[in-house]
Design a protein that fits this description.
Layout: H1 8-11, H2 22-41, H3 43-71, H4 78-82, E1 88-91, E2 97-98, E3 111-117, E4 135-143, E5 160-167
Antiparallel strand pairs: 1-2, 1-3, 3-4, 4-5
Amino acid sequence: MTPKLPPTSSLVSPRSGGGFSLVEVTLAMAIVSFGVLSVVSTMPGGMEMLRNSVNDTVESRIAQEVLAKLQGSDWSDTANLASYDGSLCYFDAQGNELHAPGGAAPDWTVFTARIAVSSTPPALPATTASPSDYLRQVRICITDQPASSADRFTNARKHRQVCTLAAKTSR
């Protein structure tokens, strides 16, 4: 005698073939799409932050290089130091200075720095001594705008300004 089995309709559903329904697949795709789109939508902002960070680093390097050039110049000849006032220096994307004959901007110029050197020593706060002949205020404006942009050094949004003091480091 064989045991009697209950009807198959109560034990096994007709969909127990192991597949997914169209509604389940659609919902899963919608959830995955939402997640992927959320991640992808943050990429432009991240790329902009990365570009700004790289520019900040390069501009810091440029400012340090210009300041080192001024500090290493011949301070005994005041005309030499004044020759830097209003001069332009050109740099590539890594902050390396570019040189071109005739003072024109080289082909691969990415950054331009304009140097302003005060002709008189700055007055230092809370000192009774006279200002030092070996100290000058230096203003370096750095931009990545092309030379065709007329307001690249006058529009505050188009350049970064570094203001510091340069000191003579050797006698």
